[in-house]
Amino acid sequence: MIQIEEIEIVEFRGIRHLKRALGRKSFGIAGPNGTGKSGIVDAIEFALTGNITRLGGAGTAELSVKAHAPHVDANKKPEKALVRLKVYVPSLKKSFAIERTVKNAGTAELKPSNTETKAILAQLETHPEFALSRREIIKYVLVPAGKRSQYVQELLRLAELEKVRMSLQRVANDAKRDQVRTEAEDRRTKADFFKHLGFANPKKSDLLDGVNARRAVLKLEPITDLAPKNALKAGVNVETGQGLQPPKFSKLGAKGDLELFMQQLAAPQEAAIAGGKADSVTALTQLTNDPALLKIVKQRALIERGLELVEEDACPLCDITWDVALLTEHLHEKIAKADAAAAILQQLAVAVEPLVVHLQAIMREAGKVTEWCEKATPPIDAAPLRAYAKAVSGDRAVLDKVVRDPAAIADALQALGRLDAPSPPELLDATNGLTAYIDTLADPSKEEEAKEFLIVAQEKYDQCRKTQRDLTDAMQQAETAAAVLSHYGMVSTTILEGIYDKVQKDFTDYYSFINRDDEAKFEGKLSPSFGKLAFDVDFYGRGKFPPGAYHSEGHQDGMGLCLYLALVKHTLGDGFTLAVLDDVLMSVDAGHRREVCALLKQKFPNTQFILTTHDGVWLKFMQSEKLVQGTLSFGGWTVDSGPQVWNEGDVWSQIQDYLAKGNVPTAAGILRRYLEFASTILADNLRARIEYHGNGQYDLGDLWPSVLAAWKARLLEARDSAASWGKNVQDAETLQVESKKRVAATKSEEWMINKAVHYNAWADLQPTEFSAVATAFQGLLHLMQCPNSDCGEFLCVSPIKGDKEVLRCSCGTVSLNLVPKKK
Predict the structure, then answer these.
(1) What is the DSSP track for 571-604?
(2) Which of 281-295, 369-383, 737-751 bottoms out in mean pLDDT, i.e. has the lowest?
(3) What are the domain boundaries of the chain?
(4) pLDDT tens digits along 725-773
(5) Alpha helix locations (H) across 156-225?
(6) What number does CATH give the domain 1-126+577-645?
(7) H-assigned helices in 376-408
């Protein structure tokens, strides 16, 4: 894979123009929500794949890359919206450039463009997992086992496994259903044949006796087997001199078919049909009595997609503010209800099957009776029979459909109600008319009856043989489909178990690493089963439970991150050289920030991490732990200028540029916001005492006086400590003296008396007056930073809690002892 050397973004998303050298090093980006951080993530994804995840998927039907990726002021000129990356390929030890415009999003311009660079880009386009947002963590933790299996297999590039399994499952289900229906048809043809011969449950000898009795009437040789072709009617045409076909209207045939039709009309009273109807009504009533249950079945796919898109504090569909844990729990409850509804639908499928077969039989027998009506002389009006058969066909289709489409429940209940309803009077008129016509016909002679009997018996026997062959084929297909599905499941599960064993080992290692203070013996377990992936984790030695059972949201997100890292490591191996984590670290338990930084740094030393966060403290941790070697801090955003980048040099240059134009209010606003940003970091670094606000909002007046007080206290502690040990106190004293001068230049001491006045009055100053204020603060802040230009970070008390030991920078240039010698 690649590492990014340089990025340039032009008129893309909320960014007008931004160019930064990353130097293949890990990079941190911090700033409040809405300041443009995710625009950089989108830009990297777009340059490498041509897509933007947040502009696709459920709920984004009206969004597109072409229409909405350009800055709002450039959306009519997509050719101006572009991203340029200079990337390095460790495996090739070569660099190349990628440029992609929104106008031609599907095609990137490569320099140089050759077989190697094209292959690298093609690989990147098929591996979008290099980017992960916080809302995607939940895909690996708080989802049903079936969905987890799908998402994990997608990340492992094994998505085809689940697609094949689902296809095989559908084939097996269809084959089984065909077998059941073929079995019913086979039973029907056998019953029809037996009934024709006058037996209910005959032996083969009984059947032969029935046939041979009629053959004897025609003075034909008896048969000893039913199997040979046309054995039952063999010799009929030769001995009688008459054709094989029965007469145009057969009194016996019509009478038998009419009796069978009337029996089918009465079949709803039989146990199998009545039981199927009762079970079907029960299942459908359960769904209709709970409209929410039925509705949830229709919404299931949307809910599962919604789980993927859950934002930090809002529903992904309506944007209503939620506690994310409660929202997630709510969606999981709805999915559980959908599972319950799915179980009811499965019961419905079993109950409906005999009813579908019964209605199919009515349609078939109605067709036969219709033909007899039309053969009568004169023909009997068969329109009521055709209308009835058509209505029955509609009911059959509805019952067959309702299992797959719950929207047909109302129609299905009506169809079930018609099962045992009285036959329409028009239908009875037609059947009574046929009965009367049959009664007018003379009975055939014994020879004619025997001949017709043998011809019809042969037809019914041939039909039995056909349905038996169909049943044999259906059983073989169902058996084969089930065997293939079972074998595929066994093999794929075995392979996945091997993969998951490796993944869960790394996952356990990573999570134990970041929680080694209280969960050092933690263990996670991935358990694959057919189409599912269960995920259980240890909870302080009390057993293994789903992540959402007892662990906090911060721990759950930590698990999601660790599982993601373990999966990507398995997928990409040494190719895992780039990871873009968009606000992923924000929700990780605050007490484990340093551990997370150490994990990424130690376990993935060859991976370039690009991390965004809306917490400036997180950025500080990334710097102090040397996870990132470069940073950007966004302090605000406007539609005209894009993100306000808090880069040390940029801030002071911007202030001077506005002052040169006489624009003091804007320059004052920039200084104030930057001081608030710097104060947030310094308050944490210096362990300042800040008056607590329940809403978590602190302005400059809340922060700066406490930061100055803490800074003075730390310098005093450093001087006293050096004196107590008999060391040189010159460094601490020099800082104290210089600090006093620079604090005085800023007039910050006045804020200790009235913290609301000073910075509110800046906008009323003249450009030269405010320039002096800005210069004074610039000098004071530089004093609080490491003088090493390669470091430049604000000095920090170590450790972050407990007894203060040293005031230092991470590069070691500054290290002032704060621990006095014990007396």
Answers:
(1) HHGGG--EEEEES-GGGS-GGGHHHHHHHHHHH-
(2) 281-295
(3) 1-126+577-645, 258-440, 655-817
(4) 888 888 889 989 999 999 888 887 666 545 545 667 787 888 898 898 8
(5) 159-197, 204-217
(6) 3.40.50.300
(7) 383-402
